[in-house]
Amino acid sequence: MSSNSSGDSVARLLRESLGVLEREHPVLHARMSARLTGAVLSFEVDDERFHVSFVSGTARVLPGRGASGLLLATSKQTLRAVLEARLALEDAVQVDAVRVLGPLELLTSAHEALRCYVHGAVRCPSFPALLTRLLLLLTTPP
Amino acid sequence: MRQPTPSVTDALFHMDYYRGPPPGPERNIGFKEWQHFIVHTPRTQLIVNFSLMNEAWSTSAREPPVARVIILARRDTLEGDVDSFRGAQIDVQPGRIDTRLGTNSLRFERGRFLLSAALLERDLSVELELIPSSTPLATFGRPLAMGRSLSWVSVPRLRADGAITLNGRRERVTRAPAYHDHNWGHFAWGDDFAWEWGQFLAGSDADPWSLVFYRMIDRTRGRVRDQAILLWHGAELRRQFRGPDLRVTAHKRGGLPQALKVPRIMALLSPGTANDVPASLEVTAREGGDDLTARFELRSLAQVLIPDETDPTGVVTLNEACGQMTLSGRLRGEPLAMEGPCVLELVR
């Protein structure tokens, strides 16, 4: 797992952010979780690999790749470009800068869950600090 | 050098101060207040906005407000962003004009607004002194939606001096025409309202014309609640048309270049390039033998994207379009024809 000098990694920041979302906007946390109940999403961001397991309304971020479900693979550079609106997420998928592998139905649910997550993120007071840390991490060379 | 007019200074001192929510924590929720400045230089159209919002979705009535600084500048291209501030980063006192949000500040000293602002992540900053050259106009409690209203103080013309720095290029600002308003009210973004608002400055220091147009409508844009066009010459409000005297026609919807969306993260919730902002908006007014035609020709569009406070997965868009306006018509038998820079704001 790659992390910067402050110990941040994408997985760690995602874990913290899910806790913030649950505390500060439980409605959107519940909507997000409901769309992915029983699902496993695996992530690869450069050399960092982790997965998120959604069980009974709770999202757990765990190391390594999940056994099944959806795989999303991208680079720190692409993730930063998407967050800074230099690259639209849809365009990133079309040019394979974000690669998605898995059942279409799960992909659709994951996209809806992502929208709930972002809607919550822009409404939670604690998210701007997390975003700052994430953007700093994403500028750290692999 | 032009000096501030004592009567204008006195009026602003008594009208333009920060209101803040009324006493009582339950009154905090949904209270919003902002200071808005527009400057038109020969090279740059600039918008600076300092706002404080008690967000309507706050779970606690005692939740402190969020402050935002928006800076948008159109030069060869459009640049800008929104920075947010909380807690000790905010220094605003009810009854005072002076405001500090992070390292950004607005002060009112000896009849001059002193505006200092810089974006955290972009090379865009302003250091301006703005001297009002027209009398402020206060409007209280105009209807927004059921039980919601907005009040404002507007200064239709100021003179700006100082500097605007954008992407490493510093522009010295000398005697540039400017506009200022200050708004406050209790409402939620996403309530049953929208508005169309425009501002125009023309002429010279010796022959100064200023125009403000506004139209408050419901969110479906099917019903007009209030509309007016106001025209100043210098400090004098020369003419106003209201209500049924106005007709508004939009042309070439979606005809503007791709919008700059801020804050950047909100683009994830408002993807794509489609919008319904017209490339041209024509407002005609006719009453008592006078008539005016104001045509806003828009060149660029920035979209300030705000989380909807009534719908957890909704977005409200403040469209900020810059361009040129032509004004023609006849007042008291005298023909009128001029053009100048304008800003049009459409809330959707």
Q: What about the largest sheet of chain B?
A: 12 strands, antiparallel
Shape of chain B: globular
CATH topology (fold) name of chain B = AttH-like fold
Rounded mean pLDDT of chain B is 91
Q: Estimate what percentage of residues of chain A fall within beta strands.
A: 15-25%
- The number of distinct β-strands of chain A equals 5
Distance between the termini of chain A: 10 Å
- Based on CA atoms alone, the radius of gyration of chain B comes out at 19 Å
Helix content of chain B: under 10%
Coarse morphology of chain A: globular
Q: Judging by the overall fold, what is the CATH architecture of chain A?
A: 2-Layer Sandwich
Which fold name fills CATH's third level, the topology of chain A? Nonspecific Lipid-transfer Protein, Chain A
Spatial ordering of strands, largest sheet of chain A:
3-2-1-4-5
CATH homologous superfamily of chain A, by name? SCP2 sterol-binding domain
How many structural domains in the coordinates of chain B?
Answer: 1
Pick out its properties.
heterodimer; A: 142 residues; alpha+beta; Nonspecific Lipid-transfer Protein, Chain A; 5-stranded mixed sheet; globular; B: 348 residues; mainly beta; AttH-like fold; 12-stranded antiparallel sheet; 10-stranded mixed sheet; 22 strands; 3% helix
Question: Could you please describe the fold and organization of this structure?
Answer:
The complex is a heterodimer of chains A (142) and B (348). Helices cover 49% and strands 20% of the residues of chain A. Chain A has 142 residues and is an alpha+beta fold. Chain A has one domain (10-134): 2-Layer Sandwich (Nonspecific Lipid-transfer Protein, Chain A). In chain A, strands 3-2-1-4-5 form a 5-stranded mixed β-sheet. The radius of gyration of chain B is 19 Å and the shape is globular. Chain B starts with 5 loop residues before the first helix and ends with a strand. The relative contact order of chain B is 0.14.
